[in-house]
Specification:
Layout: H1 21-25, H2 29-32, H3 47-61, H4 94-98, H5 111-124, E1 128-129, H6 131-147, H7 158-173, E2 179-180, H8 182-200, H9 220-238
Parallel strand pairs: 1-2
Helix pairs in contact: 6-7, 6-8, 7-8
Length: about 240
C-alpha cells in the first residue's frame, strides 16, 4: 500500500463547472473513485490569498524567504507569541485554525526533518478509532447514504466509510497518538465536506447532489438550468421571449 497524490489539468485548460470532475479531466471513473479526496483548485480572486501569493512571488524573485523568523506559527495577537497555533485549543473550524493572517510569522519545517517525522510515524504509530470518533464517522456516513437515495445521485458505498477511517487514523498518526479522538474525526469530516463541496457545486455556485461525481453527464436539474439559460440568451439576442414547439 502507498499514498498517491496526483494533479491534473482540465481538458482545454478551463474547468467547466457544468460538467463532472471525470468529464473535465477525461479520467475514468474507476480510477478517479480510488482517491479519497478530490480538491478543485480554481483561480478565484481573494484579497487575503492574493496578498500572500504576491508577497511570496516577490520574495522569490528577490531571493528571500517570506515571514520566516521562528520555528512555529505564531499569532501576533495571542497572549504568548511563542505558543504554536497547533497547541492552542480552539472551537474554531479547521479552515479558520489553518488560515494564515497576512504579516504573521511562520517558519516551515525543514524538508529532512519532516521526512524523518513522517517515516517515524508510519513505522511506529498505529492508531485505533475511539468510540467517540467512530460514532462521528458513522453518523456522517449514514447521512451521506441517506442523501444518495435520490435518483441520479452519486452512490455512497462502504468505500467512503473506509476513506473516512483511513483519514482519521492518519490525522491521529500525524500527532503520534495511538488513539484517534473525536477531534480527529471532526477535522476529517470537515475536510471531506470541503472536498465534496467543490465536486458537487454546479456552474451557478449551488450544491447539486443529484449530479454524478465520477460518471458522465449532468443531473436533470442541471440540464434544466442550462436549457433555461440558453433560452434567455436566445431571447436577449432576438428580442423575443415567445418560443414555439
Amino acid at each position: 500500500r502507498t499514498s498517491i497524490i496526483a494533479a491534473a489539468n482540465p481538458v482545454g485548460g478551463h474547468y467547466n463547472k457544468a460538467k463532472t470532475v471525470s468529464e473535465n479531466l477525461k479520467m475514468g471513473s474507476a480510477l478517479l473513485s480510488r482517491f479519497d479526496l478530490v480538491f478543485i483548485l480554481l483561480d478565484v480572486p481573494n484579497e487575503d490569498h492574493d496578498h500572500l501569493l504576491s508577497e511570496h512571488v516577490m520574495a522569490m524573485r528577490n531571493g528571500k524567504q517570506t515571514g520566516c523568523s521562528s520555528a512555529t506559527v505564531t499569532r501576533e495577537h495571542s497572549q504568548n507569541s511563542n505558543i504554536s497555533v497547533l497547541e492552542v485549543l480552539s472551537d474554531k473550524p479547521l479552515a479558520e485554525r489553518l488560515k494564515l493572517i497576512p504579516g504573521e510569522n511562520y517558519d516551515p519545517i525543514p524538508h529532512q526533518l519532516l521526512k524523518k517525522y513522517v517515516g517515524y510515524a508510519r513505522q511506529y504509530v498505529y492508531p485505533k478509532l475511539s468510540p467517540e470518533a467512530a460514532q462521528i464517522l458513522q453518523k456522517f456516513y449514514l447521512e451521506l447514504r441517506q442523501q444518495s437515495q435520490r435518483a441520479d445521485s452519486t452512490p455512497i458505498t462502504t468505500r467512503q466509510l473506509e476513506s473516512l477511517i483511513r483519514l482519521t487514523e492518519a490525522r491521529s498518526r500525524l500527532e503520534l497518538r495511538e488513539k484517534a479522538t473525536k477531534e480527529d474525526a471532526e477535522d476529517v469530516v470537515e475536510i471531506m465536506k470541503y472536498s465534496m463541496l467543490g465536486t458537487y457545486s454546479d456552474e451557478f455556485g449551488k450544491l447539486d447532489f443529484e449530479r454524478s461525481q465520477h460518471g458522465s453527464g449532468m443531473s436533470k436539474r442541471s440540464q434544466g438550468k442550462k436549457f433555461i439559460s440558453a433560452l434567455h440568451r436566445v431571447a436577449e439576442r432576438t428580442y423575443n421571449n415567445i418560443f414555439e414547439l
